[in-house]
Amino acid sequence: MLGQLTAKQIEVLELLSRHLITKEIARELNIAPNTVDQRIAAVREKWGTANRKDTVRKYAELQAICGKTTYGPDAVDGHPGSVEREAEALEASQPPSDSVIETVGGSQEILNQGERPFGLQALDEKLGKLGRVGLVLMFALLIAITLAAVLVGAEALGRLL
User: Fold this and answer.
1) Do residues 43 and 9 touch, judged by C-beta distance below 8 A?
2) How many independent structural domains does the chain possess?
3) Does residue 48 contact residue 42 with C-beta atoms inside 8 Å?
4) Residue 77: what pLDDT?
5) Percentage helix, strand, coil, to 5, in the chain?
6) What is the 3-state secondary structure (H, E, C) of 81-126?
7) Do 88 and 132 belong to one domain?
8) Least C-beta-crowded within 10 Å: which of 3, 11, 34, 153?
């Protein structure tokens, strides 16, 4: 059954089995979310599974039965060089040494070099945490000034009428 799948479908299943959602898988593989859904639907159709959860369960069962991983043969199967492949697989699963680990909102996020941060990560990268606090205070001051101007305008209109 694993032989029925394309390499790209297996790649999506690997990420799906790590409990990633469609958008995260798409970002990781640099493809459209619709493409991720299409690949999952193709696997479900081939295997006759009812939903994503069943598809991931089936994938895990088949891997356990076949002893296959996406990294190649296990080190115990006696193939020459399999220990080296196992070490490479372990190294590949670790974040690269040029990765930046950021803590945002209590959770750690890994950004590979060249990957563009977004949201609070981008703001922290440009301004730092102190800069973010300053920006929040500036917006609060802007809102207070706007509110004061509205109140003064309302009072002036009340005097005219």
Assistant:
1) yes
2) 2
3) no
4) 43
5) 65, 5, 25
6) CHHHHHHHHHHHHCCCCCCEEEEECCEEEEECCCCCCCCHHHHHHH
7) no
8) 3
